[in-house]
Amino acid sequence: MRVLINWILSALAVWVVSQFVPGFHVKGAVSALIAALPLTILTLGIFWFVINGLMLELAAAVVPGFRVDTFASAFWGGIILSLVNMLLRWLAGTSRKQD
After folding, report:
1. What is the mean pLDDT of residues 5-24?
2. 92: buried, middle or exposed (CB in 10 Å: 19+, 13-18, 0-12)?
3. Which has fewest Cβ within 10 Å: 26, 38, 52, 87?
4. What is the pLDDT of residues 18-60, one digit of tens each?
């Protein structure tokens, strides 16, 4: 259940980023959910911002309705996406492990 909530929050974060980062476009909830999937699965912790940018570009290459114009847009989008994700997870109470 926690993975599903984090996936939905990641999709919401992708949409939020599309509202603020020029060159970052999402055409609906399905595109946001599919684009967020690699971010939910591949959280490596190393070079997080660059990896996020690359994953966003990869998602944009294969998801209809999701487009990122440049790597700079993907990079800044990845940074904002991480911050928005942290905030949403904190607000949803899923940011810490439960015993």
Report:
1. 86
2. middle
3. 87
4. 998 899 899 999 999 888 876 555 554 445 677 778 888 999 9
How many structural domains does the chain have? 1
What is the pLDDT, as a whole number, of residue 66?
Answer: 92
Question: Given the structure tokens 């940018």, which residue do they identify?
Answer: 53
Task: Give Cβ neighbours of residue 91 (< 8 Å, ≥ 6 apart).
Answer: none
Question: Residue 81: inside a domain, yes or no?
Answer: yes
Q: Of 6, 22, 24, 4, give the one whose Cα is nearest residue 14.
A: 24
Q: Which residue segment(s) compose the domain that 21 sits in?
A: 2-92
Tokens standing for 31?
Answer: 């595109």
